[in-house]
Amino acid sequence: MIPLILTFLGIVSDPDFAASDSLQIEVLETGATVSAHFNKQFKLELPKDTIWNICINSEKCYELKYLGADSVFSAEIQGKNVTWFDDGSSRVESEELRVESDKESDAVAQSAGAEQVTELRKVVVQLRKKPKRKLGESVVSAKNIKRMPGLAEADVMRSIQALPGVVASSDFSTKIYVRGGASDQNLFLLDNGIVYCPTHFFGLFSTFLVEAVDDVKFYKSGFPAEYGNRLSSVAAINSRKGGNDTLDEWFSKSSIKISTFAAQAHTEGHKGNARWVVAARSTYIKQILDALQAAGATDFTVDYKFTDIQGAFDYKFSEDKELQVALYTGADILNFSPLFVEWGNTVIPVNYQWQVNDKWRSNIGISYSRFFQDFRIEDLLGMENGVSTFAIRQSLAYSGFGDHTLAFGYDLEFSEIFFIQNVQFTGQKFEDVPQTFHHILYAQDTWRPSSWELRYGLRFNYHELSQHFGVEPRLAISWEFAEDNKLEFYTGYYFQYLNNLMFSDMEALNEFYYPSRKTAINGTVKPSSSILSAIGYSRSNIFGMFNFNTEAYYKTQNNLTVYSQESLDDSTSSLVESLGDMITFGEGYSFGYEVSLQKPDGFVSGSINWNQGWSVFKDGPNSAYFPNWHQPYALKGDLSFNWFEENYFLRSSFQLKWASGMPYTPYLGYLSKFQMDEKFPGYDVDAIQGNRNATMQTPYFRLDAKIIDWGKKDKWNFGFTILNLTNHQNLFYTFYHTQENPPTEEKIYQFPFFPLLLNWEYYF
Fold first, then answer.
1. What is d(CA 184, CA 501) in angstroms, rounded to the nearest whole number?
2. How far apart are CA 133 and CA 209, in angstroms?
3. Where are the beta strands (DSSP E) in 378-484?
4. Given this model, what pLDDT does residue 124 score?
5. How many Å apart are CA 183 and CA 201, to the nearest integer?
6. DSSP secondary structure string for all residues of 100-119
7. Residues 415, 447: contact at Cβ < 8 Å?
8. Above 70 in pLDDT, residue 702?
9. Which of 131, 423, 474, 757 is the most buried (most CB within 10 A)?
10. How confident is the model at residue 641 (pLDDT cuts 50, 70, 90)?
């Protein structure tokens, strides 16, 4: 029987690290870290298990499997006998090493006979090289997401908002705006299945459940040719494989989580070649707010609820063939009289991966995605919008051509977009339900000559509804000119065939999607397009503990869709056949730079980043203006203390953001209108607005603290978070009460100081 706690005595002799003065070694399962030196012994405490993933300097990872029964064992990490592949996977050729055990267990082993001694001393070390970060890519692990201070829940979208170059418009939204682009310009994928508008109301939660997530690969520039139909970024969310490596049980691990606003449960298992995980969540926000209102703590309440279900099932037919099926479905209902809103997402991706041989790798995917939303204002107005997409994907990678890795792929997407407006008090109904096929063919080569890496490719599009053929060239260059020093450059041309309609400057709860298409009046709603270029420098292992990165970018944007009935006149209004006939077009540009410094490991870890950027838009006959997500500067930081990391752990985390306020259109005053025979003015008042988004709100500041993150590994966890620790008043919205006489200016602020964010989690 394996002891509860094992002591591993290791020596790193892998020649990849021979020149390193110091090494940082991390156990991925526990987050425990230790410093070591090349060819010198280090010591790690490992929890009850027989397989652990150990990473060195965040560059190379090893799977350590112990088949013995001692409490102390050792092995030398040599890094031999492994076939590497470009995507970071490997064909494992395990080697058996003799173990140096403690004297007591060694004596027991010898008394059992020579054959048993050999079995007890066996250690199998399986090496899997950790793939290098792709150009323009950031990776956020589920472990890091869980450690961030949040609104009582570990939140995938909030972790992306913390990255440099990413703007969050307010506390009430988990939407993201990347390098000056609109919120609909970001592609969200769950195991290659499209997820439309992954947000919940008030921004308290994102739609993804961290228990079912492995990591998030986020590209804010230079994304590869396999990704498209978005202008700004790609967030590729990968599902976690459930179950324990050493337990062959359908239900090997389960948990329940209770927080201030929601409850969550999850379970997972590993049986033979099958692994699975499923998580579900629901909220009780209304009941909590009602209780706080009754106690006099707030005067705000809302009838709101949501549910989430997310999971994945993996089946490994062999070392070379694997099937994965994932699911996410969620729904929101908001009843805020006279407004009723219901919306939700469903995505089902299926992927079959096949390592054909040492040179060829295949991935076949099928996915179904659906997003719907229904807005109603009592019996006056109703509006429905949504997207359903069925997609088939086939990709091939070939790594048998010297320093080159070739990638090819073909995607076929069929989408139906519906937009229905029902004006009940006039009896008018407008319905537009376009359907379209989108064909995508791409080819890409990654060439690694010496210290260089060049990735270049082409993406070809044919969008049937708009009858548009588009070609998107992509280029990324990386040069490691000295050890741990790298220069990068990337540029690309991007098309987007499904866009959000901008109805006003106010941020909507969700996106209102509409496709590029032929129309009666405009001729064609052309796809939006962008040219994005960026250059960056990065240095890792500064003083053996810090990573530094800086980037500068410039982005153009064209054919942005804006809804405007004012574009119609008497000569054209009778020609309206679709919503596309009421669309005008805008254009813009953005540029800026970002600087970040990270310390990923140790007793004290964290990061700090600064970004400064400008974004300018122009639509129709209007003059140029700042869009409502324009944020000229932002300073973000996080800091974590790992007080101790043994069988029990105690951590504290802090997250800070200081940024410019968002732009808004100011009110210059008001005008009272009255008839000559009226005695008193003010019965009919108009507020007079100035130039569009000509004024900036007061600067934003927020400090959140996860004071206590305390628990026992794989057993229980308790967290206590304080939101807006300094009670800073961050302006959200300004408006005039024109019913007052005289009218009064009102201001609505974002989240106040909130010290009641608690969560408790128990594993069984």
1. 9
2. 24
3. 381-401, 404-423, 428-432, 435-447, 452-463, 468-482
4. 41
5. 15
6. ---HHHHHHHHHT-HHHHHH
7. no
8. yes
9. 474
10. very high
State how far the Cα of 202 lies from the Cα of 157, in Å rounded to an integer. 13
Beta strands in 572-729 (DSSP E): 583-599, 604-619, 633-645, 648-659, 663-664, 667-673, 684-689, 695-696, 700-712, 716-723
Query: What stretch of H or E contains 725?
Result: none
Contact 505, 693 (CB under 8 A): yes
pLDDT for residue 444 is more than 90: yes
Strand partners, 334: 304, 341
Give the single-character DSSP code of 707. E
- Is the CB of residue 480 less than 8 Å from the CB of residue 132? no
Amino acid letter for position 297? A
Residues 233 and 166: their CA atoms lie apart, in Å, by 10
Nearest CA to 58 out of 140, 125, 130, 139 is that of 130
Q: What does the block give as tokens for 744?
A: 């009064």
C-alpha 573/C-alpha 516 separation (Å) is 20
Neighbours of 504 (CB within 10 A): 8
Confidence (pLDDT) at 67: 66
Q: pLDDT digits over 730-741, tens only?
A: 988 887 777 776
Phi and psi (nearest 5°) for 246? -100, -5
Radius of gyration of the chain from Cα atoms?
Answer: 28
d(CA 477, CA 452): 7
The residue behind tokens 């970071």 is 88
How much is the pLDDT for 138?
Answer: 76
Q: For 88-130, what is each residue's pLDDT tens digit?
A: 333 333 333 333 344 333 433 333 333 333 233 333 444 344 4
Q: Would residue 620 be called left, alpha or beta, if left means φ above 0 and alpha means ψ between -120 and 50 degrees?
A: left
**Cross-strand bridge partners of residue 698:** none
Cβ 542 vs Cβ 577: under 8 Å? no
In eight-state DSSP terms, residue 580 is G
Tell me the pLDDT tens digit for each residue of 648-682: 889 999 999 999 999 988 888 777 765 555 555 44
Neighbours of 280 (CB within 10 A): 19
Of the candidate ranges 176-185, 427-436, 545-554, 565-574, the one whose mean pLDDT is the lowest: 565-574
Contact present, 636 and 601 (Cβ < 8 Å): no
The answer, yes or no, to whether residue 17 has pLDDT greater than 80, is no
Average pLDDT over residues 736-749: 77
Q: Report, as an integer, the average pLDDT of 425-454.
A: 90
Please give the C-alpha separations between residue 572 and each of 327, 480, 501, 520, 566, in angstroms, as whole numbers. Answer: 45, 59, 20, 9, 11
d(CA 117, CA 639): 47
Strand-pairing partners, residue 734, are 747
Mean of the per-residue pLDDT values of the chain: 82
Count Cβ atoms within 10 A of the Cβ of residue 497 and give its class: 0-12 exposed, 13-18 middle, 19 or more buried.
buried
pLDDT of residue 686: 75
- 470 has which bridge partners? 461
Residue pair 173/199 in contact (Cβ under 8 Å)? The answer is yes
CA dihedral of 134, 31, 163, 655, whole degrees rounded to 10: -170
Sign of CA dihedral 200, 205, 211, 214: positive
496 three-class SS: strand
Bridge partners (DSSP) listed for residue 432: 419
User: Can you state the percent helix, strand and coil of the chain, rounding each to 5?
Assistant: 10, 60, 35
Ranked by mean pLDDT, which of 22-36, 110-124, 540-554 comes out on top?
Answer: 540-554
Does 446 have pLDDT greater than 70? yes
CA-based nearest residue to 500, from 216, 202, 169, 177: 177
Question: Within its chain, how far is the Cα of 146 from the centroid?
Answer: 13
Q: Alpha-carbon dihedral of residues 56, 60, 65, 70, nearest 10 degrees?
A: -20
What's phi and psi for 160, nearest 5 deg? Answer: -75, -40
Kindly state the DSSP code that residue 261 receives in the 8-state scheme. Answer: S
pLDDT tens digits, 311-321: 999 999 998 89
